[in-house]
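Hey,

The postdoc asked me to send both predictions to you directly instead of through the lab channel. I've kept everything plain text so nothing gets mangled by the mail client. Protein one:
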Amino acid sequence: MSQDLILVDRDPDDPIITLTLNRPDKLNAMSVELSDALDAEILRANEDGKTRAIILTGAGRAFSTGFDLNGEDFEMDTEGWLEDIGANCMRLRNIWESRVPIIAAVNGFALAGGLELVMACDIAVAAQSSCFGEPEVRHVSGPPSLLMPWTVPIRHARWLMYSGDTIDAEEAARIHLVNRVVPDDALLSEAMKMARKLARIPYPAAQTAKAALNHQQEVAGFEESWAFNRKAVAELHASPEGRYWMRLLKEHSLRDFLKRREAPFIDLS
């Protein structure tokens, strides 16, 4: 399963692996199986003793459109949501804590849980045509982690998380959501150039730099922030309004669900 859902390519010259989310027909929506397969590859790269940099990208025309909303009953109580969100937080935490630095090479859509993946990575390079957002607020939902205010200035975090708006790559770079924007056809080569730099840094120095930066966020309240968000979003999902939207998702096609969700905002784009 992992080999099908995650394509793994090891560079012949430097100790770098490229992991490609491989559900292009679903715009790399994060099913449980895909999420678990990615988690397994991240942990494997951390344990093999030889990988020094990871590139994460998506097959087809999207990095990832977020958590897969098809095929499951999401009408749960708070305890059910606490378990579900906790599992997603753990997978994102494994990316954030990875001793091997991870570069997101963002192609196309990076939305909701897909944007959470980007923000969990150490560095992000974006294709010119990529776009970003947390649109799930429009159907009474929220991200499993709270990475946005640790990534961009709070004014921009409020705009994106309150409105559900999407932004283009240039705006993402302007607000520091990504490090750099490059032409679409140069995305992987630019990500690989950065990966080669990271792979050639003496490993103890790279590990120390990451540990120190992560510790800075931890002492600033990172852990408490995630814990609060997990509980708040679980309660939101289990609220009458949250259950209403999850019931609509169960009763309608995803296309119709998204059309209904976006209808109030069409003339406000």
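Protein two:
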Amino acid sequence: MWPRRLSSLIEFARLVGWAGVHRAIRARLYGGGGDFVRFAVDLAGWQAPAATDPAIEIRRGLIELRAARASIAAPRQFYEDRVRGGRRPYLGLYDGSVGHISWVFSPGDQTRLIRLGPGEVELDGAYTFPSHRGRGLLSAVERAILSDVKAEGARVAYTHVSVENRASLRGVRKTGFRPVGIVRLRWLLGFALRRYIPFDAADAEARVEAYAR
């Protein structure tokens, strides 16, 4: 376990610099964290919306990811395989240009905000390049992921969005995700303290609309 953690730390430092590592450690000692809306979709009743933009292409897997990393200046979300053992990346391309990445995490994977049970998956590590925003890549990639994991037998998919990320709070609902609660993450002396507060179904959408304004 320790060699893997050391390798992850070295990779994280390579991506953000040792100053970034110092900031991350300081945040984890006291006060770091944030509030995240938890979204869920019941895959039994979910149907993929029809694709609307033929310029969008979806590519899957670590081989495709490594090829993309060799050709672009990629942010840290493109290195979740090295930082926390991610195994299933999905890339969204627009007119042949890589513009988005998302990851799928399953039970047993290293997740941040949820402990997954049998039949559950989480979509995390999403990032869209500024030059590609507004083109529907997040929704297209999420549709591909949900279609795949449903076919594999997953029952429920989750994703988490910071309350400060207004664009994604709106975007994930286009795929079929619905808000179910909020996760409050705080760090204290290196320990992650998570508190999940479910929303009242009657006002869940209104709560998220307030965050998204």
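Summary for protein two, as requested: The radius of gyration is 17 Å.

Thanks,
C.
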